[in-house]
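Milestone M4 deliverable, item 7.
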Amino acid sequence: MTTDQKVAVITGAASGIGRALAVHYARHGVCAVIGTFAGDPHDPEETLRLVKAAGGRGIVHEVDVRSTPSVDAFAERAVQEYGRLDYAVANAGVLRNSPLGEMTDERWEDMLNVDLTGVLRTLRAGAARMADGGAMVAVSSIAGGVYGWEEHAHYAAAKAGVLGLIRSVAVELGPRRIRANAVIPGLIETPQSLDPVNSLGPEGLQRAGNDIPWGRVGRPEEVASAIAFLTSDDSMYITGQSLIVDGGLTVKMRA
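Output delivered:
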């Protein structure tokens, strides 16, 4: 079935920013292929329910960004289901705490396999299937994208690497008018950041929010809006860029 509507694939769409983006797209007439990982405790069917409630169309597809065949099948599902692919959003990621002295090669490689190479697989699969004039966005992080973060060197390295990847992909795909950009979320209230073991947890987020000029941490919907902008025609001449969405955290002078 071929549709006149734009079609997006979104990894990590069972919760958080990915879910918010799928719903945002639904409200603006974009069909979503909702990527979910088998080990994710969040229900992708809830994302689909919200998409339909918003008047949109979508399907759930299981994808493991550590596997090239899995990611290729994920992108291909958009073409099979809707006859086209316009946007690819590499949002899936993991976050694990690991002090440098405990950073084994396995921990390092596992993190980069998801948070950096997984982004490459998503962009590569998307570019191979979208027509000229499409758009891609990768989700980086304020940790690595701007700041360092103790006990998270592998995570920060992956997220910093995403920015270099995006710049190079933007140059390579420019002749096809396929745009590639990144968003750098600041402190956003998601299931990942609410994890008190590997991230800040609820209390840590609350304290951090008090130091943000906006007066609070961000919401997934606010990052989703930025991603949607970067895939829309409103950003037609923007490519290879990294948009920070942080409520002013990175521009606040420290006393």
